[in-house]
TrEMBL record:
Organism placement in taxonomy: Bacteria, Pseudomonadati, Pseudomonadota, Alphaproteobacteria, Acetobacterales
Keywords: Membrane, Transmembrane, Transmembrane helix
Domain of life: Bacteria
Gene3D superfamilies, per the entry: HUPs
Protein name (record): YdcF family protein
Native species: Paracraurococcus lichenis
Pfam family, one: DUF218
Database matches in InterPro entries: Cell_Envelope_Assoc (IPR051599), DUF218 (IPR003848), Rossmann-like_a/b/a_fold (IPR014729)
Length: 265
């Protein structure tokens, strides 16, 4: 059942993601109009209208800001940290396979912030969780890239552990909890993108692990300048990411994978 849900989530997201859906609607509408069918103006207007609104309005910020602001980072860093859990999604394992060098995407802060935390907390352990989120996984997992990157950055091997089988956030929580077996009273930080933190916290709580949210990789600001200076392709990418998170929150709540529809501190 888990495998079926994973495959369906990947297949259905491709035509439903906003950018792809807008293009498909536009093409359907234009094809219908070309054939003399007046109803084609509606899908054409919907597809092109969405792209126009995204260019003129901060739709991406409206979608992502509530997610990124939901779990603010603690004002003070814990005095003692037993461990740091880092969710996958920031590395590019296929590029690593082809080029032989660790490659990071726009969520690179997920991989850098934990190294800084480790240097300030010699008592902490570092745990990366991530296999492959692809329908056609390659020879290497995300964990393989993380191991190489952190080793190159000077993280001692004995301070790192890797969970290599998870494909989504639910499996991140369940598999890592089984691997680490945290003890009562231990302090663990959860590092992931700020917009992904609400779903992540809900899943970890549902799994029975009370972690501290440590968000990184903020993509939106509260001022108008951050919107005006963002290129259209980036706006579309951020809108799609935020939309996927809202859909993921609803889907995980319906499947009983999270402790709330919109988890809060």
């Amino acid at each position: 059942m888990q495998d079926l849900l994973f495959v369906l989530s990947k297949i259905l997201w491709w035509p439903l993601r906003p950018g792809t859906a807008a293009i498909l609607l536009g093409l359907i509408g234009l094809a219908a109009l070309w054939g003399g069918r007046r109803w084609g103006r509606w899908p054409a207007l919907a597809g092109l209208g969405f792209l126009a609104l995204l260019a003129l309005l901060p739709l991406n910020a409206w979608v992502e800001l509530p997610l990124e602001d939901r779990f603010p980072r603690p004002a003070a860093e814990p005095a003692h940290i037993d461990g740091i859990v880092v969710l996958g999604g920031a590395v590019e394992q296929r590029l690593f396979e082809e080029r032989g060098l660790p490659a990071l995407n726009g969520a690179a802060e997920r991989m850098v912030e934990p190294v800084a935390l480790l240097r300030r907390h010699p008592e902490a352990r570092l745990v990366f969780t991530g296999g492959s989120a692809s329908l056609v996984p390659g020879a290497l997992s995300e964990a393989d890239v993380a191991r190489r990157l952190w080793r190159d950055l000077g993280v001692p091997e004995e301070r790192m552990r890797f969970e290599t089988e998870s494909r989504n956030t639910h499996e991140n929580a369940v598999n890592t909890l089984r691997l680490v077996r945290p003890q009562p009273g231990e302090t663990w930080l959860l590092v992931t993108s700020a917009s992904h933190m609400p779903r992540s916290m809900g899943v970890f709580r549902k799994a029975g692990w009370q972690v501290i949210a440590w968000p990184v990789n903020y993509r939106t600001g509260h001022g108008i300048a951050s919107w005006l200076e963002t290129a259209f392709p980036v706006r579309l990418q951020e809108f799609e990411w935020g939309t996927r998170e809202w859909v993921g929150l609803l889907a995980y709540w319906l499947m009983g994978r999270t402790d709330a529809l919109f988890p809060a501190p």
